[in-house]
Amino acid sequence: MMPANTVDELTGIAGFAARGIDALGEWGVGLFTFAETIIPPIPSEVILPLAGFLTKQGTMSLVLVFVTSTLGAYAGALLLYWLGARLGLERAIRGLSKLPLMDREDFEKAADWFQRHGKSAVFFGRFLPGVRSLISLPAGAEKMNLATFSVFTIAGSGLWNALLIGLGVLLGAQYHLIEEYSKYLNYAVYAALATAIAWVCVRAYRRQRERVGQNER
Q1: How many Å is the Cα radius of gyration of the chain?
Q2: Which of 5, 21, 108, 211, by CA, is between 20 and 30 Å from 125?
Q3: CA–CA dist 188, 104 (Å, integer)
Q4: How many other C-beta atoms lie within 10 A of the C-beta of residue 54?
């Protein structure tokens, strides 16, 4: 039987995220995956294993975590699909690339992946960082059949979510490893945050240089 205070053994960002997920419940996991699909603030690689870990503790339902996380991912994908279909690829990219942590290159990478691989890109793109969150935009712009898009999106997202949640369940079965897991997860999250901040600064600098260059012409 697992100790009742196992969540308290998680420290740093991992502990903060686990306690937040525990407080918000299964539908909170769905909100996290919805947000991550649109603008990746907290990667699913952090949230879903923690959610799976909590299901092993008995504080959340494994089935409901899987369902809500997949629904959240699908809802986010559907929103980007609608934006692509409504605005067209170029207008959607121009607007969304102004958001923090997003850049035109990210969208162009996803669009190129879709052009090269077609419909299958919607399924397999769910497993690729950088493509996973944005592949829906060119799919919508190209007016991909909505039923096909939905099936591929739900299947790809569901499989990805199941893998990550399953990792958390396996971790929950080995609760004596929690402290070690927490330490290394925190290192990974800190590194990811530092990289994201550095990348934002580099992009801001590049844009400023481009504006200065254009004004000097």
Answers
A1: 19
A2: 21
A3: 26
A4: 26
